[in-house]
Amino acid sequence: MKPQKGDSMTLLDFILQGKISGYASGGEGMEKTFDDGSRGFEFIGHGYRYLDRYYGFNPFTGTEHIYTANGPLLWVMNYYGQVLPICSDPTKVYTFLKEAMRLVSPEYPFRGPALLVKGSLKYENQQHGTLDSFHGIESIFENHEKVYFLHYHGGKVAVPETTPL
After folding, report:
1. Strands 121-130, 133-142: parallel, antiparallel or unpaired by DSSP?
2. Is 113 within 8 Å of 125 (Cβ atoms)?
3. Tens of pLDDT along the chain (165 residues)?
4. Most buried by CB count within 10 Å: which residue of 65, 101, 115, 159?
């Protein structure tokens, strides 16, 4: 999924590349701090701009935006999640979450795969819809107890041809 310089890329391919280039690979030490106090990741290329901004730590909320190269917003995903108090090792959960998120695919482009199991941890992603309009819930379980959840929703945004008065 690494096109050569100048190659065009579909919106879906760019969403996948933006997600893999952001939190899934960099995590909390690689993000930027924006003027409004949010933190996040930005990726620009192939005629698009990916921007993921989040607020808070636990719980946290954020929005992923995809813009065209010249500015109009094309696609958005909002999310809200947290590691639950029952969790004994949040760092372990976030490490596992990043591993799941690196497995985004054309079939599961919003967060991670439908299911990932590793030792005592299990990641589940219940997604509904298409790039046009979608929603879902991701959960992580440790020893069959839910220790993390995230709700997400979003879709394509219509770019107005003219600005209303």
Report:
1. antiparallel
2. yes
3. 333 344 568 999 999 988 887 777 664 456 788 899 898 988 888 999 999 999 998 999 999 999 998 889 999 999 999 999 999 999 999 999 999 999 999 999 999 999 999 999 999 999 999 999 999 999 999 999 999 999 999 999 987 665 555
4. 101
Say if CB 39 and CB 59 are below 8 A apart: no
Pure H helices in the chain: 11-21, 23-26, 90-101
- C-alpha angle 72/10/53, rounded to 5°? 50
* DSSP 8-state secondary structure symbol assigned to residue 137: E
Do 148 and 82 touch, CB atoms closer than 8 A? yes
Cβ-based neighbours of 18, under 8 Å, separated by 6 or more: 41, 43, 48, 50, 52, 64, 66
Between CA 24 and CA 104 the distance in angstroms is: 10
Cα–Cα distance for residue pair 151/50, rounded to 1 Å: 20
Question: Hey, where are the domains in the chain?
Answer: 11-156
CA–CA gap between residue 140 and residue 130 (Å, rounded):
23
113's enclosing H/E stretch is none
